[in-house]
Predict the structure of Glycoside hydrolase family 65 protein.
Amino acid sequence: MWFVERRKYVQEENYVYETLYTLANGRLSLRGVDEFSNYKMPGTYVAGIYDKHDAQVTELVNLPDPLGISIYVDGEPLLLDKSTIKSYMRALDMKNGTLNSSIVLELTNGKLIQLDSQRFVSRSNLNRFGIIYKITPLNFSGKIFIENYIDNTTYNGKLDPANKIQHYAVLKTGEMMPGLFSLVKTYDKGHLIAIRTALKGYDSKGENILRYRKYRLIGNNPSEIYTVFIREGETFTLEKYGAIVTSRHSSEPLKDADANVGIYFAEGVEEELKRHTEIVNKTWELMDIQIDGDETAQLGIRFNLFHLYQCASDDPTVSIGARGLHGEGYKGHVFWDTEIFMFPFFLYTLPKYAKNLLLYRYNTLPGARKNAHQNGFKGAQFPWESADDGTEVTPKWGEDYLGNPVRIWTGDEEYHINADIAVSLVHYHIVTSDDDFMRDYGVEMLLEIGRFWASRVEYNERNDRYEINRVIGPDEFHEHVNNNVYTNYLAKWNLLKSREYYYWLREKYPDKFEVLKYYLGLTDEEVESWKAIAEKIYIPKKEDELLIEQFEGYFQLEEHEITEWDENGLPKWPKTVDLTRLGETKLIKQPDVVMLMLVLPEEFTKEEMRVNYEYYEKRTMHKSSLSPSMYSIMGLKIGDTHNAYRYFLQTVLVDLEDNQGNTNNGFHAASAGGAWQCVVNGFGGMCLEKNGELNFEPWLPEHWKSLSFRINFKGVPLKVTVTKEKLCIETRVEMPVKVRGNRFDLRPGKNYFELVG
């Protein structure tokens, strides 16, 4: 189950498949457009290339499209939308990281031609991409024309025409030997982007078949056209070489792009493809999940892991946006999605990328400090939506569910992201034991976030408690609420952890401690005050009750029963609700209290989890792709296994079935991270205990024969295999673990534990 196939061409489905078929390497991304269709939404993105210009906020720039190619037979272009399609197949090969296609087209004059292709974006050289075409005239001989071009007319906002904008100016464009180039510059940030492409064509004997080259500049688009003489039934090969280099990685992008293509062209595309596939194959050995007995789940989980990996960058100055590098959804911005939903996958499988995600936050720390200062707080306030510098880039205006203009308050009030980042920092340290990272980067961030919370809380003298008022929790239907339990609980936890790491650094690295203490202007007295504040932060929970109120006053809101579900199993709006007054109802967008219990499971009992799951699950609209995965995991924790599997399928198929209806705008990266958590933390039952050890309490659906996954814990690779009867943990070193709460010492080799009886 390694292929996502498309066997029928339906024009209206193109935008969704372009997202599904996106190829990326963490730096460069090309949407999976079908180059022989006129109905497409090209997307060329480079991680970290943001610009504002005339847009509402800074956004990821859609750069020129380098995939331009046209084939003309008797003056007629080969187009899926105009020719007769005799056969059609496109497939994403996730094992090797390529996009393959095979189509046969009949032109209006009856001529038949077969086009086979293989596309990749290299994991070996992050500036390169390549395409190999195999072209066969099936019932004719003669002359055809092949055109290679770069499209410099691309822009952001094809799906949002009111905000349509081109973020770059074309500085230079023309021909080089071999091929074409474009050099563009973004307006505000001044990023330079150089694009080079070139063609190579040869017959079955390896002889060049590209003749009579002509160069033209069509508007701002450089174009080269070749004459090719072909014979009936004989296949010839066409190779497209491409490189994109930016000023983020080079002082002379065009010069380096040209040199890159020169070397690439001489080596041959097959060599680069070989290196690329070797890297992808080796990565699968670290991150693959195998599900025996459920082909849908198997394909779905690999699809999600493949695209998460495609977003992972070697560059610590970039992160992963909510829609990956696959489209312009949420303008390419980075949210809490990264730390809470995606981060665990990288932490336990590819920890070097997890570290880079945290370093991105460290590198944007100056912007976070600026946010805090501008808002009247201390320390660092990380933005709800982040781009390249850490300042707040949340749009001020959007649309409600009826299309009415509405003020967006999340950038002003959704403070919990600061604690979410702190959670990922602490978990990274526990799971990797990377003291050097915490010494050099992590503790500084924790202290600045702790200082922020200490300045954000408000003292209620009458009740002798600290409150956090006028906030938005994970459930974004309710704005300007007081004492949201998710926010307050994590702020309390955050303050205590910041204090703990202050003393950890003093004890373990006294020299670094002294430097950081004076650099930040900290005193023991200030840090000790965090403990006093934390102990008095108000949590809206009565000691004798298990049900936790999401925020003050939530239980007094209007009740609306969910009674209908759509074809994807997602709730329909109750007929009694006014969509402009959602904040006055108990309906919630996504888990909030339940989310808290999954972020800090060690803080709550199974009975507390059960009571709150049963209450809030009935009131959740799942209007975020983040939602179903969390209810799946919690359902497994409290025994609601039927709904847990249903929520898992909604998660793992969110893009493959487009069940949120917006896959055309990019990959649901957070949901993909949630899918991994469903399998590993849910069905695999893996949980990080308070003492830093792993506990496993697995459960498999009836039709699953086995589940196998790999994790990396404290630098040690572990292979975990679950059947109905046994749990097997394979390790190369001794290590303590718990199975269903009972502690065992793993021995090198395979360790078996009975799950029945």
In short: The first strand starts at residue 3 and ends at 6. DSSP finds 18 helices and 32 strands in the chain. The chain has three domains: 3-166+199-245, 289-683, 685-757.
